[in-house]
From TrEMBL:
The lineage of its organism: Bacteria, Bacillati, Actinomycetota, Actinomycetes, Kitasatosporales. This is Serine phosphatase RsbU, regulator of sigma subunit. SMART domains: PP2C_SIG. It comes from Actinacidiphila yanglinensis. InterPro entries: Bact_Sigma-Reg, PPM-type-like_dom_sf, PPM-type_phosphatase-like_dom. Gene3D superfamilies: PPM-type phosphatase domain (3.60.40.10). Keywords: Hydrolase. One of its GO terms (molecular function) is phosphatase activity. Residues 169-384 form the PPM-type phosphatase domain. PANTHER family: STAGE II SPORULATION PROTEIN E (PTHR43156:SF2), STAGE II SPORULATION PROTEIN E-RELATED (PTHR43156).
Amino acid sequence: MDRFTAAERELRGAAPHALLAAARGALVTYYAAVDVDLLMADYALTILQPVRAAPTSTDPLPIHSSPAGRAFGAQRVHTETDRRTGVLTAYLPISVRGDRVGVLSVRFPEEAYDLAAEPELAELAEVLGHEIFVAERDTDLYRQARRAERLTLAAEMQWELLPARSCSRPEYDIGGGLEPAYAIHGDNFDWTASGNHLTLTVTNGMGEGVEAALLTSLAVHALRNARRADLSLADQAFLGDQAVYGHYSGRAHLAALLLRFELATGEVEVIDAGSPKVWRLRARKVEPIPLEAQLPLGMFEDTVYTTQHLRLESGDRLLFVSDGVYDVLSPAGERYSDRALARAITSTRLLPPAQVPRAVLRELTTHRGSPEPEDDAMVVCLDWHGREPHQSPEEVADRP
């Protein structure tokens, strides 16, 4: 048995809470490492925290100004050597199908580091990411390590609703972000993909705190229930509307944008139910996409929704923003969407979608002139690559 297979087997056989110990043992035994740390990205994507430490006693590393953060941001192995001690540290990014989880920090005696083994080390970090994803069903250890501070109850509910923070497929890359990360309550995004379609919903529930989170949770689960019954986009909106109205009788409602992308053609069905706004970057030109406004979910009984159609081109970037982004005022009274949002979309055009939401939210903080937002802010970024003509879903799945 080769060393990679042996190390992988140890990771896959480890107890959910013991993945770090298994990774450390395997890397020491088979790759001559001297120590290993597992660093998890926090909910706000600002720091990396060691799993081995309790959340109240961690020594976090900043994502934007540390070697570990460099590996996390670039999604490439990064190495640094301490000339005083002769120890080389390899920072291995951990992700699951494009969702960035954290970094594995592995220390070696400089003379023992095998550059030829770097692809194996990177692949082991990917295996570890998948094992963390499965282990989170049975332990809170990794979720606790993501917390720089305590989540509010509403934020706990909202983060549990999310599919991931980012996802990559040959046809598209997508990333989402929420602010304030530790106190979000009403904004949400959700996506799912099959071999032929991507369905994306972005929602903005009215109210504050737990009440807003409960409203959003009801709507998201109703939309998922309808989607998993293989109903049309219009029927998904109708049943989501019924669920919210049936519980609140019009006292509360939820703005939603529903989109269904045909992966082979770039055709998009859209329902704008009082929704967050959509902007498109195409050939360096930024512009809002006008949509046919319909009633928010739950405002009135038996609302009928209709779809409209768009077509994407390879290279298009879509940005979805909630009113907590769109309507934010500067100290001088300028709305963010007047000019600053277009500048932010242009200035972040070279970043991958996984990094765009955080970058836009940082620029939003500068625009409003205060660190604390007055309302939830949500940003979702989607890059459309499309599919080559006459290419089957199976061929796309097999693409390296």
